[in-house]
Amino acid sequence: MMIPVILSGGSGTRLWPVSRKSYPKQFCALLREETPFQETLLRARSLGIKASPIIVGSWEHRFIMAEQLRQVDIEDATILLEPVARNSAAAMAAAAFLQADQDDEAILWFMPADAEISDLAALGEVLSQARQAAEKGFIATFGMQPTRPETGYGYIEQGPALAGVENSFHIARFLEKPDESEAKRLVNDGRYFWNSGMYIAKAKVFLSELKALAPDIYDNVQKAIRHNSRDLGFVQLDKEAFSQSPSISVDYAVAEKTRRAAVVPARFNWMDVGSWDAVWELTPKDEAGNAVRGNVFLDNARNCYVHSDGVVATVTGVSDLIIIVTQDAVMVSHRDSAQDVRHMVARLKKEGHSEAEQHVRVYRPWGFYESLIKKERFQVKRIYVSPGEQLSLQKHFHRAEHWVVVGGTAVVTRDQEQLIVQENESVYLPLGCVHRLENPGRIPLTLIEVQSGAYLGEDDIIRLDDIYQR
């Protein structure tokens, strides 16, 4: 049996400002209607893998993952929550321990949730070859045939052939992301492949190698699994134990050290959608080489990628630029510097700019809200509540609120009252009152919230009851 394991813990800073810590790239529809997270899950189903997937992701994104699963009708997934980020080795170990409790002979297909793969038939062929290697006790990975001297990927050097396994080889060594001249040499050599980050191995084999090569990760993640808690359909790793695990990639922890590492060369179309230059490459272009998404107008521009989330973006007389426009940020970069966007994000974060990690739109288990106007003593928000959902029963010490329903029907608890508020109606919530908002209907509820008071921070929420256990 093969189990898909989706690794969904990345933050995607090179795709800022669309991808941010609060809503990273794997959940953003950058190329099509489905997100990379959804496409990764559907890809496994398309290859005939019927086993229930295991998803390893951040506790902060648990309701985003659940909602995106619901959108593509996947109801049998196990969502394993990391209380803190500890890189791929710990994430893979958690999934392996969870599966090993049921069947340690199961083969796990570990996949990052952000890769683009177009040729499923070719993928299925090399997956079958990698599975053969895994059945013989190897930890196999796909080595992607390089098509250009890419400096954003790590590389794998092919070693001797594996006996009795078609198109499979020992790994001679892993190489760090090279500079441009070294990348050209590796591509011309012919024995080097891009490191896809996908691994295929038996649960017991992966855990055995992890125990021998990275015992700190093995011991702490095993404790985190043993002391997991389950609520609202999620499996949550024990925070104290998981936090003690070293934060290190599986390449460093296991793959570079084990004698069981194998590479299966692959020639299907694959790309790590990790930078805006990659998005440009994968997006259809006009005759001048420009790719656009959103409300964009171009004049005398060449080889640009321009993305706008709403406002009109006009671009004139430039070439080889990346221009990203969101509600609260604009990013402009030369395409050659696409990998360096993360440096600016780090600077923004260091200087205290919330835009480095937070969107204007903030997702919650019941829907989302977004700030429309924010001044010193008042703020205006749009609040969207999904059908059948409700906010926590809460109160505020520093602000009053006025709600105006603009779509759907709301049930509002206000102290001892329960009010039905319909479209074009409003309700006032004085400072200190206990209140709750519910959507009892079958269509989304949208309202405009006007806050007023001396302090408007999100930490001025005293939750008295919450179905989401926050």
From TrEMBL:
EC number(s) per entry: 2.7.7.13
Pfam families according to UniProt: ManC_GMP_beta-helix (PF22640), MannoseP_isomer (PF01050), NTP_transferase (PF00483)
Boundaries of every MannoseP isomerase/GMP-like beta-helix domain copy: 301-348
Catalysed reaction equations from the record: alpha-D-mannose 1-phosphate + GTP + H(+) = GDP-alpha-D-mannose + diphosphate
The keyword GTP-binding appears for this protein: yes
InterPro entries: GMPP_N (IPR049577), Man1P_GuaTrfase/Man6P_Isoase (IPR006375), Man6P_isomerase-2_C (IPR001538), ManC/GMP-like_b-helix (IPR054566), Mannose-6P_isomerase_type2 (IPR051161), NTP_transferase_dom (IPR005835), Nucleotide-diphossugar_trans (IPR029044), RmlC-like_jellyroll (IPR014710)
Sequence ranges assigned to domain Mannose-6-phosphate isomerase type II C-terminal in this UniProt record: 352-466
Name of the protein described by the UniProt record: mannose-1-phosphate guanylyltransferase
Native source species: Aristophania vespae
